[in-house]
Fold this sequence. Notes:
The protein is an alpha/beta fold and 295 residues long. The chain contains 10 helices and 14 strands. It starts with a strand and ends with a strand.
Amino acid sequence: MIVALTPNLSLDRTLRLDRALVPGQLHRVPEVSVAAGGKGPNLARIVRAFGGETCVAGVVAGHNGAHFRALLAAEGLSGVLEDTAGETRECHILMDGASAHPTEINEAGPAYDADAVARLLARLPAGRVAVCGSLAPGTAPDAFAAMLRALGSPVVDSSGAGLQAAIESGAGLIKPNEHELEALTGQGTVASARDLYRRSGVPVLLTRGAHGAAYIGAEVLEVQAPMVEVRNPVGSGDSLLGAFLYARQRGEPLEAALRLAVAAGSANALLGGPLRFDPAVARDLVPRTAVSIPA
């Protein structure tokens, strides 16, 4: 079981605009999709697509929270959810067909609720926990670190204070992208990830966008991504992590797991996001990945 715990769940609205985005002007939306959103649900979709056992965990609120529950159930994804005051946030993904990357507009979400989090942690099933995404507003770094310690050695995919707390609490793995690693260490490179691992003992799965990913731990390995036509890159990092955790939980060696992970991230970008993910496409891309051992 891979438990995808997201501290700040959302409703993700993907809007396909009728023309290139121009600030200050009217745009019409010929196509819209709404999904139970956040990094954890995206990760869970990929694990399930490959045939793994998974569930989504987090705190929801208000009418949007009820909508989130309904959407998750409609997909057939298992959820361990607690309610709090306020309103689950909405995140808007604007696709205009012209920009290389969508425009994303994310609301803040409901405030951190220590009681709801405690109830949630008490209900989590046994399994590998991946804590994914930004922190709820008002989350104290020490409260987040305490939650991570209570979870044992979780995987953490966050940024800023969340990533720092993961290092300080001795997470089992962190998954920053290059910008997030640069904010943490001053450089978003494999060399800085090596130094971080030496200092903290926390392995790093460094995602590098179209360039692939690198794993830095007791072993160091880099995988170059195949070239694909990018339709929607949103969720590619989540897809990469989901495939990596799935493969490692099945006992796959590091190289095979990292190659599948990079292929899954590329497949996500090619197919248009986690809702359109096809594991067969990811597996077909694996031979087009390239493995190297960084100097």
